[in-house]
TrEMBL record, chain A:
GO terms for molecular function: glycosyltransferase activity. This is Glycosyltransferase 2-like domain-containing protein. Its main location: membrane. Keywords: Glycosyltransferase, Membrane, Transferase, Transmembrane, Transmembrane helix. The chain crosses the membrane at residues 39-57, 330-352, 364-384, 396-419, 439-458, 465-484. The keyword Transferase applies. It is found in: Membrane. The keyword tRNA-binding does not apply. Residues 163-378 form the Glycosyltransferase 2-like domain. One of its GO terms (cellular component) is membrane. It comes from Acidiplasma aeolicum. It comes from the Archaea. It is a multi-pass membrane protein.
From TrEMBL, chain B:
Residues 120-359 form the KaiC domain. One of its GO terms (molecular function) is ATP binding. Keywords: ATP-binding, Nucleotide-binding. It holds the Pfam family ATPase. This is KaiC domain-containing protein. InterPro entries: KaiC-like_dom (IPR014774), KaiC_dom (IPR010624), P-loop_NTPase (IPR027417). SUPFAM superfamilies: P-loop containing nucleoside triphosphate hydrolases (SSF52540). It comes from the Archaea.
Length: 502, 370
């Protein structure tokens, strides 16, 4: 089933791209605006087409090939073989203490733990104290040269172990994280690193954490499994364990880029190493619980990934060393955060229709033989791929909703990236609700979609009805905006399971 | 002087001096023997090995040839020919020569105290049981006390905690199926020092919240990965252990924290282990003779099985060490009683000779309880 759907989807994506190009060029359009919007619409079709092709290739590989790449390894002896690096930068002290305790208790039996504290705005004494008490190595730098990569490299150069794990301070490893991942590295000498999924354990606390987990699900259950098979997996900065020799071969972490994880992965790939994705829930983290935190996180990921676009094009896409699938994978990953520019044309299309600007006029042959099956098959395959991997139905809506929420931030980030404008570093664990005015693009779109659908239904025609349908559909996807920007309740993960007798 | 040296060290000294089996030795402190002359002699320690006695003298702080001569003559009159002098200090040449002449073996206590294999073991404070365990449980591992209801699991594990508390090792009692108030009321009826240790904050008592039941049902229904549950429980438990500097932990019973799945139980029990901390879990019996789910016994380092049979009005209780990885142990079953002073073990069992009638085991217990 996965095979048939993936292949069909890819065929119809290509059919959709070709037919809409045909429609855009050959079929008559009235005026310049229509040509411009139609061409824009076509570009969006190409953009999401490539993203979807990469997605379905990944899905197919994740179902048929990925399970064979993870062999059952013997659990190894771990003495003096692993170091765990925990970077900290101006974090909440109580959270740091709690999680250092957790990292120590769950991984400290098997590994030396290094706490790399670059904080310059908070009192670091309590962290120093807990490190002393738990016998963790504490390293404080007064300058932030090389940022996170600099802090990691500072210690890496002094280490003499086989493997080095990086765990962010907001992540809690399961007691068998080190053991399981080392077993895999032992049995895969060609692997430069093993990445395990980021799992948000606090999804019970509200819509926002659940939406964030839905996004993680798509990435960690489908895309990364496929990338792991293809060889285009990149490490995600935390919940990852590296072979120190691999890092040495690329002169450790790439300090020239703020997304040191992906940049270093690219360097590793260039040196012939590849990453292995181990889809086992071995580390538990917390999703952002405030809209501000979520926006900070998304914005950081967007700017980081966008800043890597030139490197990805130079190293991978323009290089003949890599297969077509690898190049599609990297292209899709590197360019994903441009999505806002393409989403917007879908969002405004119904309103343009109201204004009399017909975006993508197709004839009924194209519509019924290419465009309609394209839409249905891709939507159904997307639905099937998620559900077959165990996603609840609402995750699909959340994923589409997340794109609606973030389309404006994506546009802003692309502009920032082009202008090389820097944003101050902020973490996903801070802030509160966003001012409602921040959502003006979303509310504007909701208004336009709502108005257009009513208008188009009143002025009924088959074409208008179809457009109105999509307008209503997109309007529904915006609805989480109303629920997402509010305080969440406490997660069961943060409620004590043991309580004192008195 | 007598009473300062632990039973397991004395056993090891005796065992090494005369090539005897450590766990077949029984130690009595301040023991009196009436000699052939009719005089009553007090010995620092007498170690019983089958029908044979070994006399142990602790050297005095100042050089005393007379003490050695007296010890030797007391032994001769009492018909004891196996004699050990435990030296707290470097003996002088005369003392050494005299010991040699009388056939008294000199044992340097430092050699035994620094013996890594045996030092630092977590004792129950029940000499017979500690002896069976070659000195106690090795910290850093997880042990199972199993037995049907009423077998004495809670009493034995509570004694483990209160003995630790007396020796300045903080304990944590995690109650999963009783209310702490009820538990405290019950345990206070026994003179084992638990209540006092709790009031002095040397023992913490914790109960589990409903949260655990909620999470467990989520895992059982397949909605949550079991690692999340284990990570949550282990992290929180260990946080308590570290912040309160706890050395002994009892989870009584462990069943409510478990899910009947081998992978789960394996990971859970392995994860409970912590350097320098001794963890005891208790379990009733349902599936096998050792546990509720029939899996727990495979993933612990050691097992003590408690059992009883009722004959008429009598309850005949037995304790048996079933497994103890990385340690020698005596697997012969011992009988025991649960009294107001807690568990009192009977010396009578195969492999261990009973002490003479004038030294009741309740007396031994009194020393411990002091």
């Amino acid at each position: 089933m996965a095979n048939i759907l993936s292949v069909l989807s890819i065929i119809f994506i290509i059919a959709g791209i070709i037919s809409s190009l045909y429609a855009a060029i050959i079929l008559k359009h009235g005026n310049l605006e229509e040509y411009i919007f139609t061409f824009w619409f076509w570009l969006a079709t190409v953009f999401f087409g490539i993203q979807s092709i990469s997605y379905f290739i990944s899905f197919r590989r994740s179902v048929y090939k990925y399970p064979d790449t993870i062999n059952s390894a013997y659990l190894p002896s771990l003495r003096n073989r692993v170091a765990i690096l925990v970077p900290i930068f101006n974090e909440d002290i109580n959270m740091c203490i709690d999680n250092l305790l957790a990292i120590h208790t769950n991984a400290g039996n098997y590994a030396d733990i290094y706490v790399l504290d670059d904080s310059n705005k908070v009192d670091t004494e309590p962290i120093k104290e807990i490190c002393q008490k738990l016998n963790l190595h504490y390293i404080h730098r007064n300058n932030r040269s090389g940022y996170k990569a600099g802090a990691l490299n500072n210690v890496l150069r002094t280490l003499n172990v086989e493997y080095v794990a990086v765990i962010d301070i907001d992540q809690t490893p399961a007691p068998d994280f080190v053991r399981e991942t080392v077993a895999l590295l032992d049995s895969h000498p060609e692997a430069g690193f093993v990445q395990v999924p980021q799992v948000y354990a606090n999804t019970d606390s509200g819509v926002l954490p659940e939406l964030a987990q839905a996004q993680q699900f798509l990435f960690y259950e489908i895309l990364t499994e496929g990338k792991s098979v293809t060889g285009s997996l990149f490490s995600c900065g935390t919940n990852v364990i590296y072979r120190l020799n691999a890092l040495k071969s690329v002169n450790y972490f790439d300090e020239t880029n703020i997304v040191e994880d992906i940049a270093t992965s690219l360097n590793l790939i260039a040196r012939g190493w590849h990453g292995l994705y181990y889809n086992k829930k071995l580390v538990f983290g917390r999703a952002p619980t405030t809209m501000q935190g979520y926006v900070n996180q998304q914005s950081r990921w967007m700017l980081g990934s966008l800043s890597l676009v030139p490197k990805v094009f130079k190293n991978i896409i323009f290089s003949k060393k890599y297969s077509l699938v690898e190049r599609i994978d990297w292209f899709a990953a590197a360019t994903w955060y441009f999505f806002g520019f393409f989403y917007i044309v879908f969002l405004i299309a119904p309103f343009l229709d109201v204004l009399g600007i017909k975006v993508l006029t197709v004839n009924s042959i194209i519509y019924f033989f290419a465009w309609l099956p394209y839409t249905i098959i891709v939507m159904f395959s997307f639905f099937y791929s998620n559900v077959s991997k165990g996603a609840p139905f609402r995750y699909l809506l959340y994923n589409m909703g997340a794109n609606m929420l973030m389309f404006s931030l994506s546009i802003q980030s692309v502009i920032y990236a082009i202008l090389r404008k820097k944003k101050p570093f902020t973490t996903a664990r801070t802030g509160g609700t966003m001012p409602w005015r921040w959502f003006w693009p979303q509310f504007t779109m909701m208004f336009l979609l709502g108005f257009s659908s009513v208008y188009l239904i009143i002025h009924f025609s088959l074409y208008n009805a179809i457009t109105a349908f999509w307008a209503v559909f997109q309007f529904i996807l915006f609805i989480p905006v109303i629920f997402i920007n509010r305080p969440v309740k406490q997660s069961e993960m943060d409620m004590p399971v043991f309580k004192n007798a008195n | 002087m007598a009473g300062n040296i632990s039973t397991d060290i004395l056993q090891r000294i005796a065992s090494k001096s005369f090539s005897l089996d450590t766990h077949a030795l029984k130690v009595e402190a301040n023991y009196s023997i009436t000699g052939m002359s009719g005089t009553e002699y007090h010995f620092d320690y007498i170690v019983f090995s089958g029908g044979e006695k070994i006399a142990i003298k602790i050297s005095s702080d100042v050089s005393s040839i007379n003490d050695i001569m007296l010890f030797n003559s007391h032994c001769i009159d009492s018909g004891i020919d196996k004699k050990i002098m435990i030296a707290n200090r470097e003996l002088n040449e005369n003392e050494k020569r005299m010991c040699q002449a009388f056939g008294i073996i000199i044992a340097d206590i430092k050699n035994y105290e620094n013996d890594e294999l045996y030092s630092g073991r977590a004792k129950f404070g029940i000499p017979e049981l500690d002896a069976k365990l070659a000195g106690g449980l090795r910290p850093g591992y997880v042990y199972l006390i199993s037995g049907k209801t009423g077998a004495g699991k809670t009493t034995l594990s509570s004694m483990f905690l209160s003995f630790g508390a007396k020796n300045n090792e903080k304990g944590l009692m995690v109650l999963t199926d009783t209310f702490p108030d009820q538990f405290l009321d019950n345990i206070r009826t026994m003179d084992i020092g638990f209540g006092e240790a709790y009031e002095n904050k040397m023992i913490e008592i914790m109960e589990i919240s409903d949260q655990i039941r909620v999470m467990k049902s989520e895992v059982s229904s397949g909605n949550t990965d079991f690692r999340k549950f284990i990570t949550k429980i282990i992290t929180e438990l260990k946080r308590i252990i570290i912040t309160k500097n706890i050395k002994r932990v009892v989870i009584d019973p462990v069943t409510l924290l478990l899910i009947p799945d081998d992978d789960y139980i394996n990971l859970f029990l392995n994860s409970l282990a912590m350097k320098d901390v001794t963890v005891i879990i208790t379990s009733g019996l349902r599936t096998t003779e050792l546990s509720v789910f029939g899996m727990e016994e495979y993933y612990v380092t050691g097992i003590i099985k408690l059992d009883y049979v009722t004959t008429g009005e009598n309850i005949d209780r037995t304790l048996r060490i079933v497994k103890m990885r990385g340690s020698i142990f005596d697997s012969t079953p011992s009988r025991f009683k649960i009294t107001s002073a807690g568990i009192i073990m009977d010396g009578k069992n195969s492999g261990i000779s009973s002490p003479p009638a004038n030294s009741g085991s309740s007396d031994i217990f009194k020393n411990i309880g002091d």
